[in-house]
Design brief:
By secondary structure, the protein is mainly alpha-helical. Helices cover 52% and strands 0% of the residues. It is built from five helices and no strands. Helix 3 crosses helix 4. The chain starts with 19 loop residues before the first helix and ends in a 22-residue tail after the last helix.
Length: 136
């Protein structure tokens, strides 16, 4: 499985259009890689095909790509146009906050910036509570 960008990002859990057995197979390959039992020739072939060995990278990449696609297809309020929009919107807000406080890697911050994802996404639900003035 190589996605439209040419990368082999296969999540641990199935997503739309991806069979459960493929996800299971990818998880087994990553487990063997972490344990050091993945055959060298298989690792070489997987890497040449663009297969990502890190599951954490896969999750971030998968969400990043879903958001980029949703923004391009759905416009300014993209999260309303897709099934998992609220989850991805929350993920995007977390990425923005991490970028602001410096806890997100520079490469990821740059990628978010390049795609225009560091602005124009409300940090809250849009409903703000009025703060009460402290008396005293």
């Amino acid at each position: 499985f190589i996605d439209k960008t040419g990368q082999g990002i296969i999540p641990a859990v199935p997503v739309e259009g991806l069979d459960r057995s493929v996800c299971h197979w990818a998880s087994i390959q990553r487990l063997k890689y972490r344990k050091g039992t993945l055959a060298a020739n298989r690792e070489k072939l997987l890497r040449e095909a663009g297969f990502e060995m890190s599951h954490v990278t896969d999750r971030w990449e998968l969400r990043f790509k879903r958001v980029v696609t949703a923004v391009k297809e759905g416009g300014k309020e993209w999260w309303n146009s897709i099934k998992d929009g609220e989850m991805l919107r929350a993920w995007t807000v977390r990425q923005r906050l991490c970028a602001r406080n410096g806890s997100l890697g520079q490469d990821r911050t740059d990628r978010l910036k390049t795609e225009g994802l560091l602005g124009d996404i409300p940090l809250g639900s849009g409903k703000r509570r009025a703060r009460k003035k402290r008396e005293g």
